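If it is no trouble, can you show me the amino acids of a protein and the tokens describing how it folds?
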Amino acid sequence: MCLIPGGEFLMGSTDADGWPADGEGPVRPITLQPFHIDACCVTNERFMDFFNATGYKTEAERFGWSFVFHLYLARPVLARIKERVAGSEWWCKVEGANWRHPEGEATNIKKRWSHPVVHVSYQDAKAYAEWAGKRLPTEAEWECAARGGLVQKRFPWGDELLPEGKHRCNIWQGRFPMNDTGEDGYQGTAPALSYQANGYGLYNVAGNVWEWCHDWFSPNFHVNGPRVDPVGPPSGDRKVVRGGSYLCHNSYCNRYRVGARTSNTPDSSTGNMGFRCVRDV
């Protein structure tokens, strides 16, 4: 885990290409207590340790299905798909898809032990964190850590997406949603320790997989909300997720910017959502 020193930082974004309806702004000073945060997302290997110790079944396993991106499905599986997400038809409801079988029953994680665990809901992530003696980060903690000590930069490494022409995160290249050229080295998830760490030692806080946070989502609660150790609104129906994923592309969803945010329901699971944990100092 990495020690985040705490103190004051500027949270939020007013990026010209941002998503105001998400409540990215206003930019505001936030003060946090020091905390530790995982250097990378929880991997399949670590989640297997949790499963072996507890026998825990994820919500996707109990439901019997999860959402998988269409390009990663074998043709016979794709031909049998009966349900897709309206308006985002690239998401397919796949029977038997879960963290151990990311693209359905015929797939496995044997070559992906070092990749982030996916197909985990907020509830699953919370259960793992409690077993590990940790917790999920608040949204403010996540953003402070992701910024790596930089002030109001677009990305964890600065303002340029490709500094010196080099890829620094796992996002989509090509024409979304039909062609990912994989110019950054990966199609789908990358190992959790890929690319260069930010200034605090965190890996992949832009792209790769979305990360669950503790907070209920609201587009406006934080405008006049607490400025010291904020934990989000007291209730809601969706939880905050941060960081973007390997499916993010400037033409569709540029929420791999460090100040960007979105949400999902606590029982949702997909092939591009994972998490990392924090622990109090």
User: Anything to note?
Assistant: The mean pLDDT is 97.
